[in-house]
Design a protein that fits this description.
Elements lengths: L1 H49 L20 H10 L10 E5 L4 E5 L5 H4 L1 E2 L15 E2 L1
Antiparallel strand pairs: 1-2, 3-4
Length: 134
């Protein structure tokens, strides 16, 4: 009976150590996620503040004839020439009621997030609908 209690006690200690390790890993991952998201949001805002507002000042990479292009197409082409680092966020998602502010990176689209369109009402364009991801 005594040896059985010793093994149970050892098993309890192992489970306690594993639990503490998992809690530590969770806390570290959560902190790292929040810190990196905050830094990415600051980086995005800094890049937005320094981005050229006048697309006429952007360089054209080759001899492209823009004379027959519409203003919208010309503006889109010139804006596409702006060099953005691949690790920079493309946007910032803010949900004030949830106190949520996270960066959105390239590749953060519906297929990448495996979005679910199981409810046909989601496709109706109603702004009160919610998108659920798996």
């Amino acid at each position: 009976m005594n040896s059985e209690n010793v093994w149970l006690r050892r098993f309890e200690v192992v489970l306690l150590a594993a639990g503490l390790l998992l809690v530590t890993v969770f806390v570290a991952a959560t902190l790292q996620s929040r810190i990196s998201a905050g830094l990415a949001v600051k980086k995005f805002e800094a890049e937005q503040a320094t981005a050229p507002q006048d697309t006429a000042m952007l360089p054209i990479r080759s001899n492209v004839d823009l004379s027959l292009w519409s203003d919208g197409r010309r503006k889109g082409y010139l804006e596409s020439l702006v060099e953005t680092p691949t690790d920079a966020p493309q946007a910032v998602l803010r949900v004030p009621k949830l106190h949520l502010e996270v960066p959105v990176y390239e590749g953060s689209d519906e297929p990448a997030l495996k979005a679910s369109y199981e409810d046909p009402a989601l496709l109706s364009g109603d702004p009160t609908n919610q998108l659920q991801s798996r």
